[in-house]
Design goal:
The chain has helices at 2-16, 37-52, 55-67, 87-91, and strands at 25-34, 71-75, 78-85, 103-110, 113-120, 125-133, 138-149, 152-166. By secondary structure, it is α+β, with helices and mostly antiparallel strands. A hairpin with a 2-residue loop joins strand 4 (103-110) and strand 5 (113-120).
Length: 181
């Protein structure tokens, strides 16, 4: 689960960070991984574990994640993240993502398509993302990431979309953005 969230956020950072005129407000990122059967079973197990948590424990976990600016829902094999983009983040065209480790990116843009190659450390990984912008209220993305697991290279693919839900973030707090480079 942790690796998948890191992968999802790395892909969002790779693409959405360069979206022009990103609107401030509440955004939803829905990402669907194409996982091998063992990983799919782990995701299903994580979803069941969340659903079967005592209400107090689940509420505590949701509150902790919300305090970091993330509201996560897992259903139907997809992970949906809702977060708030501040006016400052929108002006800098920075996606509100938490980035672990140190990542470098090579970004190429042609029209409404952004192609990014990224290399990250901790956890060590590298990959490619293609983001197709739909104006300033949405995008679609495809991310492929390669990383080492128990001495073997694993490849994970994620497809998804981001969409602007509205100007009011309600009780969803902004997530800290990566530093502008």
């Amino acid at each position: 689960m942790k690796l998948f969230v890191v992968l999802t956020l790395a892909g969002l950072a790779a693409g959405a960070a360069h979206a022009q005129n990103m609107k401030p407000g509440l955004w939803e990122f829905k990402q669907t991984p194409q996982l091998d059967p063992a990983r799919q079973a782990q995701m299903a197990q994580a979803q069941k574990a969340m659903e079967s948590m005592p209400p107090e424990q689940r509420q505590m976990m949701e509150k902790m994640m919300a305090s970091r600016g993330v509201n996560v829902s897992m259903s139907g094999g997809a992970i949906t993240i809702k977060t708030c983009v501040t006016k400052e983040q929108a002006e800098r065209n920075m996606a509100p993502v938490h980035q672990q480790g140190n990542c470098s990116q090579d970004v190429k843009r042609s029209g409404n398509t952004i192609q990014t190659h990224f290399v990250c450390t901790d956890p060590a990984s590298e990959g490619d993302a293609t983001v197709t912008l739909r104006g300033n209220e949405g995008f679609t993305n495809d991310v492929t990431m390669r990383h080492q697991r128990q001495g073997k290279t694993e490849t994970t693919r994620v497809s998804g979309e981001g969409r602007w839900l509205g100007a009011d973030c309600g009780d969803v707090k902004p997530m800290q953005s990566p530093q502008a480079k």
